[in-house]
Amino acid sequence: MTDTTAVIRASHLDLTFQTADGPVHALKDVSLDIEKGSFVSFIGPSGCGKTTFLRCIAALEHPTGGSLTVNGMTPDEARRARAYGYVFQAAGLYPWRTIGRNIALPLEIMGFSKAEQAERVKRVLELVELSGFEKKFPWQLSGGMQQRASIARALAFDADILLMDEPFGALDEIVRDRLNEELLKLWAKTEKTIGFVTHSIPEAVYLSTHIVVMSPRPGRITDVIVSPLPKERPLDIRDSPEFIEVAHRVREGLRAGYEE
Question: Domain of life here (predicted)?
Answer without folding.
Answer: Bacteria
